[in-house]
Amino acid sequence: MSNHQNQPRIKGLPASLNGIVIALPVILGYLPVGFAYGVLAEKAGLSAVNTLLMSIVVFAGSAQLIAVGLFSAGIEPLTIILTTFVVNLRHMLMSAALSPYLQGWRKRELAWFAYELTDETFALHATRLPEDGVSRTETFAINAAAQAAWILGTLLGVVGGRLVTDIEPLALDYALPAMFIALLVMQLNRKTEVAVAVVSGLCSVGLYLAGWDQWHVIMATLVGATFGVVVEKWIK
Fold it and tell me: Which distant-in-sequence residues (6+ apart) come within 8 Å of 46 by Cβ?
């Protein structure tokens, strides 16, 4: 079965609505995580306007959570900027992986697509874009729905931040890993892909425990991709 067929499309729906349907796993994950970010930002002393602006302008979940933590610790702004820059370097790898399928797009379309690209939407697009005839409207609808969910979650977090004294009992920090696991399972169709996922995961955890807390994802991605290429060539 092709990846295109695995997408949960509904016949008869416009491409924009099908994009929202495809993005549902991301939406369900972004609402609680965005809520957690909103609560943490409120606790850190960020204004409601700045908290929402970060979700609108920056729109990078892990980077926003890290930035809020550094802000609450009184870290210098330049350090916060450099740290979030390093954390988001993985977007270069994701963009490079998708770029062959975006050759015919206009520059403004590429800019808008890159602006809303996240780890989770990348996982969805990686299974869609290699197929022929993928709608750009559906593609942008996926990104827009994901960001709308994140902004809504942020707004709810800002409002509820004064009512929630401790977010740990709510287990909101589990929502993001659970969403990643669900998206990963949707992409595993062959034994090689399972092996790459296992190697990448073990490498990422190992590097994190070794103290590479800012580079472990990027390095594990490179190791996993290299391992996958070597295995594919060896099999052929």
Answer: 54, 68, 71
